[in-house]
Every structure is written in C-alpha cells, then in structure tokens.
C-alpha cells in the first residue's frame, strides 16, 4: 500500500507529524507492505533567503504579529516537538527558501533515500540552524545520507528536479491540499495535519483493509470460451 506525504521542510508541524506517523507505522502489523513517498510543498514559495533575519521577527513581519506573540507561538511549537523527542531551536533557524532543498529530496528519492533526506533537512533547519538554501550545506547533508557530492552539485547548479517539485505542488493543488503535512493513504484517505498517533493508526488499518480487499479481486473480467489447460485437456 502506498502512502504519499506532502510536506515542506520549513513546516514545524511536518516534522512533528513525521514522528507521530512513524510511531503509528512502527506499531502497524503490516508495515513491511507499506511504501512511503515524500512529496514537495512550499508554504512560502516567494520567501527570500536571508540568514541575517531572525525567524521570529520574520514571522511577526510576515503575519502582522508583534514580536512577543511570534516568540510565544514558536515556544508552543517547540514544546509540542519535545513531546515526540524533537529539539527545535528557532533562535538559530535561518530564513531560507526551501525550493532547492526539495530538489535535493527528489534526487535522494530517486536513489531510495527520500525519507533519509527529509529527516536530514528537518533536523538541519529546526535543530541545527543550518541554511537549507546554501549549496555547500545541501551537499554536506546529501553526502551524510549516502548521495554523491558531485551529483548533488551538478543537480543543484542546474535546474534538475525543478519540474518534479512544481509537479508535486500542482498535484497538491488538484487534490485540494491547502496545508501540510498532508498524508494520502491508498489514494483514498487523506489525513491533514500532525494528527495523533491514534488517528494515524486508525487510518492505516482502514486504508490497508481496503487495499487488501481491492487487491484480492480478479484483475480481469473473463469471457469464457474454448481453450486448453495446463493438464492437456482441451474443450
């Protein structure tokens, strides 16, 4: 069964949702029959990378909040992250456009390392204060999960996977996805947001039961006629 996850590496709830989903999947009896694919989404495609900006000040300016409120919101999310074992440090977070990070993720996905790339990018942004739009940083992150440095450099210096990122975003729009994280299970059930482990578990069970039923049905509608069988009988 396939599960697609639309996400932005700058979305704090996406990392939290990833952990909760992973907890549910780990407890799922049929986890070995589940394929997970990460999809690109940009919360702010027009964001300009600026390492000199403080993320709380950026949010305050962008959303019309006062600075104290922006910090309170980040503190609240930091507490949520801690509950699932994640360490967020918004004081170090770098304001950066995520498009190139998504391109790196697509390169990794092509080589079966999509989940590893997402984990590395989330950790780099939320915990380590790294610039996820910086070429050297992305090369280091890619190499750390097993990608080739020259291939990463060639990819990011050109426009490789740019169309793939845009395709994911367009697909999300067609599905009516307006926020992330968004999980699509068996192309039938959608789960929006960093839901509880219980919600993910329930939807996994329901989706898998449907998937099993669908795949147990004959693939063809057969019109019977005269034929020969493997035992040599013809008629």
Structure write-up:
It is a single chain. With 235 residues, this protein is an alpha+beta fold. It has a single domain, classed as Glutaredoxin. It contains nine helices and six strands, in the order βαββααβαααααββα. It has helices at 12-27, 55-63, 67-83, 99-110, 114-126, 135-144, 149-157, 162-174, 197-216; strands at 2-7, 35-40, 50-54, 94-95, 182-185, 189-192. Strands 2-1-5-6 form a four-stranded mixed beta sheet, sandwiched between helices. It has a two-stranded antiparallel ribbon with strand order 3-4. Helix 1 links the parallel strand 1 (2-7) and strand 2. Helix 4 packs antiparallel against helix 5 and helix 6 (135-144) packs antiparallel against helix 7. The longest helix is centred in the C-terminal third of the chain and has 20 residues, at 197-216. It starts with a strand and ends in a 19-residue tail after the last helix.
């Amino acid at each position: 069964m396939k599960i697609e996850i639309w996400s932005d590496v700058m979305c704090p709830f996406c990392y939290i949702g990833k952990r909760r989903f992973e907890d549910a999947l780990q407890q799922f009896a049929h986890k070995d029959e589940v394929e997970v694919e990460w999809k690109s989404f940009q919360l702010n495609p027009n964001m300009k990378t600026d390492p000199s900006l403080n993320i709380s000040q950026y949010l305050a300016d962008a959303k019309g909040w006062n600075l104290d409120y922006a910090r309170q919101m980040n503190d609240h999310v930091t507490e949520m992250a801690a509950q699932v074992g994640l360490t967020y440090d918004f004081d170090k977070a770098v304001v950066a456009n995520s498009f190139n990070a998504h391109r790196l993720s697509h390169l990794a996905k092509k080589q079966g390392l999509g989940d590893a790339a997402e984990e590395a990018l989330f950790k780099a942004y939320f915990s380590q204060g790294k610039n996820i739009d910086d070429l050297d940083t992305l090369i280091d992150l890619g190499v750390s999960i097993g990608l080739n440095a020259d291939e990463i450099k060639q990819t990011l210096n050109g426009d490789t996977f740019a169309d793939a990122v845009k395709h994911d975003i367009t697909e999300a729009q067609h599905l009516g996805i307006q926020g992330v994280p968004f999980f699509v299970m068996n192309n039938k059930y959608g789960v929006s947001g960093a839901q509880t482990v219980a919600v993910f578990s329930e939807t996994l069970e329901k989706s898998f039961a449907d998937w099993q039923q669908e795949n147990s049905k004959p693939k063809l509608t057969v019109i019977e006629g005269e034929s020969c069988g493997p035992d040599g009988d013809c008629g």
